[in-house]
Design a protein that fits this description.
single chain; 187 residues; mainly alpha; Dehydroquinate synthase-like, alpha domain; two-stranded antiparallel sheet; two-stranded antiparallel ribbon; 9 helices; 4 strands; binds zinc ion
């Protein structure tokens, strides 16, 4: 259940700041949340349907659903799938928010806001030390989003707002050094 909540946290992060702020007590204790959990699932389904409905061919805004997934898929695969998908993208969202902050795309403090909710949900907030930054970087290159060898990151501007990227491509190329720094940054 906690792993499933990672996608709900993502939906708030990319599209709905109010939802993001509202969900913290629910993700902290989903078993006791009752109706709130049903509301959470409903709002997440609405957000996903809205995003997919805006872009059925996955050429633009739908890429915002990939937030956390470039680094997430890399650590998921490096773990030999011992990390659940939601655990991997929880880590991925933190690292990709840090990447965005370093690039000046993501507002300062966004990573901290994400970390609070992800930690409240009992999900991991850091890359385990056995996954060396260079190996994670290498693993991002075999992800399906690495088209023509170019690794794409879907970033957010702030909680509740995905970045449209340059020329409305809804994705950013990121220098290797920035990825390495974001992966290596502890805490
Ligand atoms: Zn996912």
């Amino acid at each position: 259940m906690r792993a499933g909540l990672a996608e709900a946290i993502k939906h708030g992060a990319i599209a709905d700041a109010e939802y993001f702020a509202w969900m913290k007590p629910t993700v902290a204790d989903p078993a006791a949340a009752g109706d709130y959990l049903a509301q959470l699932v409903l709002r997440s389904v609405q957000i996903k349907a809205d995003v997919v409905g805006r872009d059925e061919r996955e050429s633009g805004p739908r890429k915002m659903l990939n937030f956390g997934h470039t680094v997430g898929h890399a650590v998921e695969s490096l773990s030999g799938f011992r990390l659940l998908h939601g655990e991997a993208i929880a880590i991925g969202m933190i690292v990709e928010s840090r990447i965005g902050e370093r690039m000046g795309i993501t507002a300062a403090g966004t990573t901290e806001a994400l970390r609070e909710v992800i930690a409240a949900a009992g999900l991991p907030v850091r890359v385990a030390p056995e996954y060396l930054p260079e190996r994670v970087l290498e693993a991002t290159r075999s992800d399906k989003k690495a088209r023509q060898g170019r690794v794409e990151y879907s970033l957010i501007e702030r909680i509740g707002m995905a970045s449209a990227g340059l020329d409305g491509r809804w994705a950013w190329g990121v220098e290797d050094e920035v990825v390495m720094e974001a992966l290596g940054a502890g805490g």
